[in-house]
Amino acid sequence: MARLPRLTVPGYAHHLIQRGNNRQAIFASDADRLFLLDLLTEHARQCEVAVHAYVLMDNHFHLLATPATAQGLAQMMQAVGRRYVRYFNDRQKRTGTLWEGRFKSSLIQSERYLLACMAYIDLNPVRAGMVAQPADYPWSSYAHHTGQRLEPWLTPHPLYWELGNTPFAREIAYANLVQAGIASVQQTALTDATLRGWALGEPEFVADLQKRTVRRVSKTT
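RESULT FIELD:
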């Protein structure tokens, strides 16, 4: 069966995962992580993609982003991926692919899943047993959203702004949200939808979304 084209609709939030080939490490040093963040900063701006959250794990990374154009996400990820592979191969004196095929992505219903997706992303290092608390992990957007570090390249989603009337109120509210964790059913839904490339949301949302694209948006549509 032919592979479906990627589901991308401008103005909607998307959860992305890019993995290393055969689950191999994609970073050998903190300098590598900083270089990838620099690439994301540059190409998110060029491709008109608002990045809301991220986490860089050892062998993969997650993004939560909203593109302004239909091609923005793919263009950003392609540019970042190609430049990073050249950089990494040169540094490590290696050749060949680094990524496990094309990136995985899912379009999500913001009102229901966006804040849960942000928490899901920031809790990745905790679930992996790398740290006890998300604040202990330096390579995610958690510190930015809780006021511990400023990352101007990130774009707060309107739902994040609604967490409080002041920066301090928003930071506390988000920290409490992450501390409370997310339900296992939400975690499974976010993972499965992203790996399979389907839209994630309530039936009415999915039905409305289907009217905006010729690409099938769910397994049942």
